[in-house]
Amino acid sequence: MSAFNESRDERGLIEALLGNGHFLLALTGVALVGSGGFALFLCLTGHFLPHDVAHLGMDARQLAGVSNDELVNFMFHDRAAFGGALISMGALYLWLVAFPLRRGEAWAWWALVLSGATGFGSFLTYLAYGYFDQWHGVATVCLLPIYVGGMTRAWAQLSPSKSWRTLLCHKRFPDEGRAGAAGRRLLLAYGGGLVFAGIVIAFTGMTRVFVMTDLNYIGMTRLEICGVSDRLIPLIAHDRAGFGGGLLSIGIVVFAIVCHAPATRSFKQVMLFSGGVGFTTAIGVHFVIGYLDPLHIAPALAGLAIFLSGWTLTCFSGRAVSASANPPISLETRKADAS
What is the pLDDT of residues 277-296, one digit of tens each? Predict the structure, then answer.
């Protein structure tokens, strides 16, 4: 009877469902992927969100009629890039939860803290440009408790060394060889580039909103855009600042993963998926809408080249290590083993 009593699970239903917080954090990642997919769907179908239409007093087709197609395409180009960034970030969150966080590695928890703080905090950039996105606000209010709850419960599952300094300890992987080390350096440059680009784009969204190449593509001055609707620029600023915040969050996670995680198969898979989605949307949308100013897309193309080079070298190092760990068996060795 005593053995039976000891095996009884007296946890409450909510406690059992919340578990170690990993489910809640994975749900956060899934929500980010879903939000990004929805943003891309709206871009492909040529629709603004209902509250955007209410804010402007016109839909995408009507806006194109009173301005031009390039202005509308420019708005969709920002949203497509933001959608890709959300999918990329969600995939990285899911990987962190499924692998290092499940093993109790504190650096992964702190990476999620920094990334989440910048991601959720980027919503507050609306204070600079004055457009309060109602759907974005509701999504933040709903998702933030899930994220905080998951992080709180995951804290108890970490290894004894929980200090934030674990995030600063750069690990070395000598078994990956020179190619692997070179690949990691390039991937670190890629992550650092995302951080820098995110800060610049978010700051631009909160201040100037447009760069010169944007206005050249749109074919209108800032004053002419304001003349279409004085509510238009704050809406564009929201999309731009949000995209910048997304890039910053992704860059933080990428930098942490490359510094701490071995180049396993899942590492390579999530890096390829995350970078592939991000670059495909951010660069591909420019070809779709015809915004091909070399000065504008050159940084993204350079980032793509660095990313692909780093990822390829990392994959090559994995094959080299595998080959060295299992060298080919000579005919003489096989004969000796048989005898």
Answer: 999 999 999 999 999 999 99
Cβ atoms of residues 195 and 255 within 8 Å: yes
End-to-end CA distance of the chain: 60
Is the C-alpha dihedral spanning 138, 141, 146, 151 positive or negative? positive
If we measure between CA atoms, which residue out of 326, 254, 225, 217 comes closest to residue 95?
Answer: 254
Q: Domain locations in the chain?
A: 16-158+176-319
Closest CA to 126 of 55, 222, 74: 55
Given a cut of 70, the residues of the chain with pLDDT beneath it are: 1-7, 13-14, 17, 317-339
Place of tokens 């592939």: 276
Contacting residues for 265 by C-beta, under 8 A, at least 6 apart: 318
Q: Rounded to two decimals, what is the model's pTM?
A: 0.88
Asked whether the beta carbons of 205 and 279 are under 8 A apart, the reply is no
